[in-house]
């Protein structure tokens, strides 16, 4: 039985890495039926809007979307496409694994952790943002709710329980931001009591960032609010070689969007040297979500094998001499064995 998914190829290098990723998914015989939809600059040119209603309807109908990087035009009148999608579909959980792979330029070679970031409220709410005093003062409201905190912390603990992980660290700034961050921490403490078999740790965000650099192995699953999670998940990507190896899943009750978290890199568009790993790893997250664990594992093992043994097929950003297409070719060879 086939599974229909929405596919957004994206802007810049998006179509190149998406084509490589779909080639691998086809080689795995995942039974996926692709529905290509427009968003980003392509949609703006064709439809006059960054996210056409038809695309939103398809995402809602199918429930699963694989998305390449999108470009939000600079200037007033354009809000982040990613933030719009997360809020529109209430994709409250942003899940970003950071896992070491061989042959990358990273300080550590044995990182395996996950950041679970609240995705719909906190400092990223557009509500309450304004300029006053003739534009000389900017005001932004940080809104954290008990409901939002409960569901993201519970998601993190359930993820840990279902994946055999032993520890959840709640990252906060409750010592200073006593209302919003304090509420998040209070809720995290309450939820942690429901999971006595999982170690619970709480850590102030500035200390957490320092500890990530000095001793990242102490972390397993990190759960935090929107702004802190955005910053920390990129820090974690730096521990394993950069955003080229950083996938992300945006999960809600009725929809899920899986994406490469890096940008559209227009400076290398068309050169066929874009690293497809982040989107491939996002596709693996999607397959996990669809209960195709064996196929997800095949992608991750294949990436590891290519990075370690097929350096001539690896893209230049990871020290190889290959292209986007040769990386896909090597991975197709692996999964077809």
From TrEMBL:
Its domain of life? Bacteria
Q: Which family does it belong to?
A: Belongs to the isocitrate and isopropylmalate dehydrogenases family.
Annotated organism of origin: Halomonas llamarensis
- The answer to whether keyword Oxidoreductase applies is yes
The protein's Enzyme Commission number: 1.1.1.41
Protein name per Swiss-Prot or TrEMBL:
Isocitrate dehydrogenase
Cite the InterPro entries for this sequence.
Answer: IsoCit/isopropylmalate_DH_CS, IsoPropMal-DH-like_dom
Gene Ontology molecular function: any one = isocitrate dehydrogenase (NAD+) activity
Q: Reply yes or no: does the keyword Oxidoreductase apply.
A: yes
- UniProt keywords, alphabetically: Oxidoreductase
Q: Where is the Isopropylmalate dehydrogenase-like domain?
A: 4-331
């Amino acid at each position: 039985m086939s599974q229909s998914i929405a596919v957004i190829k994206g802007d810049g290098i998006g179509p190149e890495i998406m084509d490589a990723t779909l080639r691998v998914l086809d080689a795995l015989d995942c039974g996926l039926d692709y529905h290509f939809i427009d968003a980003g600059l392509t949609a703006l040119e064709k439809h006059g809007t960054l996210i056409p209603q038809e695309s939103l309807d398809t995402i809602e109908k199918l429930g699963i979307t694989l998305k390449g990087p999108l470009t939000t035009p600079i200037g007033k009148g354009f809000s982040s496409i990613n933030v719009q999608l997360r809020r529109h579909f209430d994709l409250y959980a942003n899940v970003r694994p950071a896992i070491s792979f061989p042959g990358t330029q990273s300080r550590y070679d044995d990182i395996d952790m996950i950041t679970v970031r609240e995705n719909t409220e906190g400092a990223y709410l557009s509500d309450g943002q304004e300029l006053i005093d003739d534009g000389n003062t900017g005001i932004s409201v940080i809104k954290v709710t008990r409901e939002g905190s409960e569901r993201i912390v519970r998601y993190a603990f359930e993820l840990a329980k279902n994946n055999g992980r032993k520890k959840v660290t709640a990252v906060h700034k409750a010592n200073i931001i006593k209302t919003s961050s304090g509420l998040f921490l209070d809720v995290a403490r309450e939820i942690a009591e429901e999971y006595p078999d999982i170690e619970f740790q709480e850590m102030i965000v500035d200390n957490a960032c320092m500890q990530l650099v000095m001793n990242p192995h102490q972390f397993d699953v990190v759960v935090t609010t929107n702004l802190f999670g955005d910053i920390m998940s990129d820090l974690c990507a730096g521990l394993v070689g950069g955003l080229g190896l950083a996938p992300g899943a945006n999960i809600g009750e009725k929809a899920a969007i899986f994406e490469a978290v890096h940008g559209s890199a227009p400076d290398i568009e068309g050169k066929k040297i874009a690293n497809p790993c982040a989107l491939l790893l996002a596709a693996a997250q999607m397959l996990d979500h669809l209960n195709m664990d064996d196929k997800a594992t095949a992608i991750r093992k294949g990436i590891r094998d290519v990075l370690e043994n097929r350096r001539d097929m690896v893209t230049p950003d990871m020290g190889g001499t290959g292209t986007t297409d040769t990386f896909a070719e090597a991975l197709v060879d692996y999964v077809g064995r």
